[in-house]
Design a protein that fits this description.
Elements (H helix, E strand, L loop, with lengths): L4 H9 L3 E2 L1 E6 L5 E6 L2 E5 L4 E7 L5 H6 L2 E6 L5 H8 L12 E2 L5 E2 L5 E13 L2 E13 L6 E3 L2 E3 L6 H4 L2
Antiparallel strand pairs: 1-11, 2-3, 2-6, 4-5, 5-10, 6-9, 7-8, 9-10, 11-12
């Protein structure tokens, strides 16, 4: 027996996730990118992260062929970027807010964090591919990260100094 698809989707919508835009450049020089909230650390040694990409996405083949990619963890004011990179059929890079960042990959200078990865492995994840990246460079920005929960964007509450001291 399997869980009902609607129940499964509704339950997972309650799980907050970071909002990222993942980018790469094809050998021909074309930039590719997509929005993902299925991003997580995987291993400290070696430093591995994972991000999931729908196999039906227009960017899927480009990321299967990529030898590196950049994960931009969006800051709280970048929900417009998340929406743009989630939309098909548009030039996601036309806004001009991307610049060469770590490993020369297109990135958001004002992202909350960036992780430049070499492609370590690609695993099957049902209707998604799991891109496993080995972190080659990291950058931490100053803004609070953007979070997605209950089908809306949110921002985490700042840490309570009293709780942090415990």
């Amino acid at each position: 027996m399997s869980v009902d698809t609607t129940d499964f989707t509704q339950a997972l919508a309650r799980v907050p996730g970071p909002v990222t835009v993942v980018t790469t450049v094809s050998p021909s020089g074309q930039s590719w990118g997509f929005t993902a909230s299925s991003f997580s650390s995987l291993s400290l040694s070696p430093p591995l992260v994972l991000v999931c990409l729908d196999k039906a996405a227009s960017t899927h083949q480009a990321f299967l062929e990529a030898d590196r990619f950049l994960i931009n963890v969006l800051s709280e004011e970048q929900s417009d970027v998340a929406l743009r990179f989630a939309k098909s059929g548009t030039d996601r890079f036309a806004a001009g807010d991307m610049a060469p960042c770590e490993l020369g990959l297109p990135g958001l200078p004002r992202a909350s964090a960036r992780l430049a990865c070499s492609t370590h492995d690609i695993a099957d994840g049902g209707d998604h591919s799991i891109l496993i990246g080995r972190a080659e460079a990291a950058h931490t920005g100053g803004g609070m990260p953007l979070v997605y929960c209950d089908r809306t964007f949110a921002r985490p509450a700042p840490a309570d100094p009293a709780l942090a001291a415990r």
